[in-house]
Write a structure and sequence with these properties.
By secondary structure, the protein is mainly alpha-helical. 64% of the residues lie in helices and 7% in strands. Strands 3-5-4 form a 3-stranded antiparallel β-sheet. A two-stranded antiparallel sheet has the order 1-2. Strand 4 and strand 5 (142-146) form a beta hairpin.
């Protein structure tokens, strides 16, 4: 039984396949490459360019930045500030952060449109898992979808963890995120008088993306350190067995 490229995340993509998966033209992919928004592809046999998940994730991030109304120059500045060597998963997190800047947006779409936006076919178990994560909700033959969470939810479909663990992790993140937001809000209120409406609006507009990026960076570093310790402990246990 043959499996197409879309079902094998590790399979290299040609520029045509990458463009089709991302929903852009080949010309757009090449243009982004000349602007430095996409790293160059690996060269395969006959010097054919091979693209990977990182390129696809970067295109998704660029698309989200465009949806937020950023100009090409602003997108270039944003991408230049990204840490080097980000994986596809890291880029997906950045895209989710960018999506969080926008107000909550929910749309009702058909299954065909939902699959088009997800970039893959969605079987019954996939839809059930997305529903459990509050990404989609069935409405007759259509689906109400949280557009800001859809791409992240689709990424989680391939995470090798049981649904219960993912939902428990989500609960932990929501709880601690709310606690951090409340503490930051208290701190800002102490520095800015609530009677100064212009100052409050200006602070909200400027601080949200900055604070979210700071939380993301801190969390990523802490998580990498925890995973490093976990892997180290696992190696020690395996070596003593």
């Amino acid at each position: 039984m043959t499996t197409d490229t879309a079902e094998q995340p590790g399979t290299p993509l040609t520029i045509d396949e990458l463009a089709a998966r991302a929903g852009v033209t080949v010309r757009t992919v090449r243009f982004y490459g000349t602007k430095g928004l996409l790293p160059p592809p690996a060269l395969g046999p006959r010097r054919v360019g091979h693209y990977g998940r990182e390129h696809l994730a970067r295109l998704a991030l660029i698309e989200e930045l465009q949806h937020q109304g950023m100009t090409l120059a602003a997108i270039e500045r944003y991408v230049r500030r990204l840490p080097p060597g980000l994986s596809a998963d890291d880029l997906a997190i950045h895209r989710a952060v960018v999506a969080s800047w926008a107000p909550d947006v929910q749309e009702t779409v058909s299954l065909a449109e939902l699959e088009r936006r997800a970039g893959r076919a969605l079987a019954g178990p996939d839809l059930e898992r997305l529903a459990a994560m509050n990404v989609v909700a069935a409405e007759g033959e259509a689906f109400r979808v949280d557009t800001g969470l859809l791409r992240l939810g689709v990424e989680l479909l391939d995470v090798p963890l049981p649904q219960e663990a993912i939902l428990a992790a989500r609960a932990v993140l929501v709880e601690h995120s709310r606690a951090a937001a409340q503490e930051l809000s208290r701190l800002f209120r102490e520095e800015v008088s609530e009677r100064d409406a212009d100052a409050v609006r200006s602070l909200s507009a400027h601080m949200q993306p900055i604070v979210v990026q700071a939380l993301l960076t801190t969390f990523q570093r802490s998580l990498k350190e925890e995973l490093r310790v976990w892997q180290s402990e696992g190696s020690e246990v395996g070596g003593s067995a």
